[in-house]
Amino acid sequence: MGTEAECVHVHGPIIVGAGPSGLAAAVCLLQKGIPSVVLERAGCIARSGKTEHTTASSSSPSTSASSRF
């Protein structure tokens, strides 16, 4: 493929897919204080038609997925 893969260590759940179910799972985890990582291979999330990069953590609820959608 011509690019080198980078190893990333993630502490917490990894959610595959940023559709409605994946985002709902991320929000539910965040509400319980559990940060997660959402992976999406398509250029958009929740089929909204535009790309959005969201970082959610329990220490900054203003950036949670629930406040962005």
From TrEMBL:
Record domain FAD-binding: where: 14-50
The record's section on SUPFAM superfamilies has:
FAD/NAD(P)-binding domain
Stretches with biased composition (Low complexity): 54-69
GO molecular-function term, one example from the UniProt record: FAD binding
Matching InterPro entries, A to Z? FAD-bd, FAD/NAD-bd_sf
Which Gene3D superfamilies is this protein grouped with? FAD/NAD(P)-binding domain (3.50.50.60)
Q: Which residues form the signal peptide?
A: none
Q: What name appears for this protein in its UniProt entry? A: FAD-binding domain-containing protein
In this chain, the stretch annotated as Disordered covers 48-69
Q: One Pfam annotation, family name?
A: FAD_binding_3
